[in-house]
Amino acid sequence: MATREASAAALPEDAVPAALDAVPFGVVVLDEFQRVAYANRTADRLLPNGLRIGEGAQWAAVPQPPPEEGTTDWGAGPDRAGAPQIAITTLSGRLGGRVRAMRVAADGLEPGTLIVMSPLSGSAEPARDPAQRLRDVEAVSRVGSWTWEVASGVVRWSNELFRLNGLLPGSVPVTFDRVAALFHPEDRAAVLELIEHCRRSGQPFESTHRVVRPDGSVRWQQTRGRAVTHDGRTVRIHAIVQDITRRVAREQALRQSLDESRRLGSENAALRHEIEAQLREVRESRARIVQAADEARRLLERDLHDGAQQRLTTLGLILRAAQSDSDSAATPAVAEALRDALTELQAGLGELRALARGLHPAILTDEGLVAALETLAARSALPVRLSVDRIERLAAPIEATAYFVAAEALANAVRHAGASSARISVEHRDGMLTVTVSDDGAGGARIEGGSGLRVLSDRVATLDGVLRIDSPAGAGTRVRAELPCV
Q1: Residue ending a domain, choose from 191, 211, 243
Q2: In this structure, are residues 101 and 114 in contact, taking their beta carbons and an 8 Å threshold?
Q3: What is the value of pTM for the model shown?
């Protein structure tokens, strides 16, 4: 190594830094205080945190000691007169394991010290065989590979591909025919056609197929291949093979689950349609029963009005006529008998009329719900406050049901609740008729507790309506019927 004087005399001032920046090693010069006097670009790049001129080089841990007097052990060859004396020391691991560094002390540079560094990765770790690395990767990923030399017909399998096909690596010679024989008979023609198309066209291919192992087990594999061409001809085909049996099994199980879900969904839909049809039939049947009962009540009311009431009314006229004719000639006993007969006849006629109105009031059929409720309130034994919206005529079953809800609630208020007043409210909003009857009686009414309210609830339900009872003990009763009108 040249001395400082020789370098200064032979080279321009900036030639040495320029030359050191060009070498593939890191070069650092320390002064006598172990501070960085110079560092080339490679050294600055190799060190973890770079270098600054003037900072202490703590990673150059121990100063190089001189050799003992009378010895020549500098570690660099024999001591020749006038030759530079060089000592080499490997530094400690303060460089983060990234580089290997040597401390060099050279005569003529003292008290300065030269540090030479090189990257660690190229010299510390021996190069690995690429083929072995490929085998390791295939073993870890469970992916095999094959190569087909088209001209010679030679087929080469990787070790992992032997294992994927249930064979020991290298246990049998591999030929194209032997490979084709492994494909499942139902998939063989399609796979061979894909490979042949790849050979003819040079286009890559992908195949999902089954193979039959020597032990008879069936596995699913996915193969992806591409061609290597030369002068427009395919000379080689490379392919990778992955066993996807577990994935296919999961997909098949999922498809079976989906098919079963669809089947159950279809059966549930059919069952739902059947139940809905039966429910419609039940509702229609109940509606027909209620309609038939209402019609029978109307006919009975008309028969009573036109038959029995008319006859009793005629009988009353006859008795009054007999009473007038016998006022002067009849005995007191006969006159009293005629008076008693007229009294009983009028009472019976009144009861018969009340019965006819209870069956189905003629005014409900002739004039509608509002008029019928006004008559009902006027004839009630309780003071009744009636609040009714302007309501057009509705379907006969709806009007009849609304009327009987009001009539039954008023009757219960009189007979069972001991109420002193009642209120009837009727509203028609958004296709819904609401009838509410409230009283100030004893409360405690329940649908389950009386046959009248149970019959009303069933009757309201035939029209897809709802009957609600709010009757806390001692706080009156509120009966509310909601009847759809669409």
Answers
A1: 243
A2: no
A3: 0.40
